[in-house]
Amino acid sequence: MLEYRKYLIGLLVTASTLVALYVNLFLGTDTVYTHLFYVPVVLTGIWYYWKAVYLSLFLGALHICMGLYLTGSIVPGTLARAFTLLVVALVVAALSETSGRLYSQVRKTSEEDLRGIFNSIDQAIFICGLNGEIMDVNDRAAEIYGMPKDMATKLSLADYFITPEAPEGLFRQAWDKAMAGEEQLFEWTSKKPADGSTFPAEVSLHRIKLRDQNVIIASARDITPRRQAEEELTEARRRAELYVDLMGHDINNLNQVGIGYLEIALDTMEADDEWKALLRQPLESMQNSSKLIDNVRKLQSIQTGGSRREIANIGSLLGEVQKEYARTPDREITIDYQPPEDCYAMASPLLKEAFRNVVDNAIRHSAGQVSVRITVEKKAENGKHYHLINIEDDGPGIPDETKEKLFDRSISGRPRTRGSGLGLFIARMLIEDAKGSIRVEDRVAGDYTKGSRFVITLPACGGGRDELAPYIVT
């Protein structure tokens, strides 16, 4: 690649010599053209250091000979110019050699530093030509693949990454994209050529220019520990789900038996109010236990992605909740609600549980008569349409210091808490899963003791009743 330097210097020496011979000898003039000799001498000093001295001696002697031919004697001016040419050659050669030595030392130090970094990377690194031959590997590659570095570079990248589980065609697609300048990152099955064993790896391919040469840098990270951890986590989750299902099923069955007997006793026994109150306490405890199991199952479904999203009729779901709690025994409950028309949102089929849990929270944490008011409005903001749902009660309210953490696990914020603390937590998860939000505020601003207002926003789903009817979850 550097051969052009020799040809250039040869051309400059020939051209300057011919010009000097033509002017001085053939035209017979005494015009001095030795300044042309400085160009090849300086370039030779820069590129070849002390060889410039030999060139300056040759050109200086040529100049002296031409002067002798023209004047018949050696004049001092001719000697002075030849000597100056020699001095220039010596100075340029000395400076160039010094700078070249410094550059070599810096480059050597830089390469050693880069080599140290290259070998300290905790991934197998392959430097490859564009045809897939391996030019260099780091120490980690030799360690992972169990091969000396000199042997590792005698193979091609295909020997490490083409297996029956990882066919060549798919790897070639990633390679071609990397060749086109697109960085690739993917999981792959890599092979150890020494014994043919395979392991899962995270592979990256990207094209760079290294020392004026285009190369592909391929890296491989052994992800066997991660895969094992993922498998263990999946198995642990499967076992946990199995235990929850088994325990929930058995405990729920026991609860249902106890609930059934207690309800029969309350309906058939002739007892005074005091005895009936005593029977209602274990009945309520068993009902709460069954509800806790149900909530845990719903929470598990939400967190594991088991619930899908469908078009939900918000008006219909709220109406069902109203009817359900309007029939609460031994409580005077008023739920004021007028179902809206064409009120739809894309949400989980469990969305009704969010509304039920908010209403249940208002009733459960109040005593005696309680009034609940539910309103639904349509809102637009920044070109997007929302449903604004307000569920407010005239119960004991929620203190300000607990409002922000009300929807966290096991926080109810109400006095006389009797639930598991999962209800509002599940409500928040279901509403956020539908890309909505929920917050709580005082029904009467500044006085939390006058009751609470839960404000729910859900993105509206466009379309009319007839258009959406086949997809609606009611």
From TrEMBL:
<protein>
    <recommendedName>
        <fullName>histidine kinase</fullName>
        <ecNumber>2.7.13.3</ecNumber>
    </recommendedName>
</protein>
<dbReference type="GO" id="GO:0004673">
    <property type="term" value="F:protein histidine kinase activity"/>
</dbReference>
<keyword id="KW-1133">Transmembrane helix</keyword>
<feature type="domain" description="Histidine kinase">
    <location>
        <begin position="246"/>
        <end position="462"/>
    </location>
</feature>
<dbReference type="Pfam" id="PF02518">
    <property type="entry name" value="HATPase_c"/>
</dbReference>
<keyword id="KW-0418">Kinase</keyword>
<dbReference type="InterPro" id="IPR003594">
    <property type="entry name" value="HATPase_dom"/>
</dbReference>
<dbReference type="InterPro" id="IPR013656">
    <property type="entry name" value="PAS_4"/>
</dbReference>
<dbReference type="InterPro" id="IPR005467">
    <property type="entry name" value="His_kinase_dom"/>
</dbReference>
<dbReference type="InterPro" id="IPR050736">
    <property type="entry name" value="Sensor_HK_Regulatory"/>
</dbReference>
<dbReference type="InterPro" id="IPR035965">
    <property type="entry name" value="PAS-like_dom_sf"/>
</dbReference>
<keyword id="KW-0472">Membrane</keyword>
<keyword id="KW-0902">Two-component regulatory system</keyword>
<dbReference type="InterPro" id="IPR000700">
    <property type="entry name" value="PAS-assoc_C"/>
</dbReference>
<dbReference type="Pfam" id="PF08448">
    <property type="entry name" value="PAS_4"/>
</dbReference>
<dbReference type="InterPro" id="IPR000014">
    <property type="entry name" value="PAS"/>
</dbReference>
<dbReference type="GO" id="GO:0000160">
    <property type="term" value="P:phosphorelay signal transduction system"/>
</dbReference>
<dbReference type="InterPro" id="IPR036890">
    <property type="entry name" value="HATPase_C_sf"/>
</dbReference>
<feature type="transmembrane region" description="Helical">
    <location>
        <begin position="47"/>
        <end position="71"/>
    </location>
</feature>
<keyword id="KW-0812">Transmembrane</keyword>
<dbReference type="InterPro" id="IPR004358">
    <property type="entry name" value="Sig_transdc_His_kin-like_C"/>
</dbReference>
<keyword id="KW-0808">Transferase</keyword>
<feature type="domain" description="PAS">
    <location>
        <begin position="110"/>
        <end position="182"/>
    </location>
</feature>
<feature type="transmembrane region" description="Helical">
    <location>
        <begin position="7"/>
        <end position="27"/>
    </location>
</feature>
<feature type="domain" description="PAC">
    <location>
        <begin position="184"/>
        <end position="235"/>
    </location>
</feature>
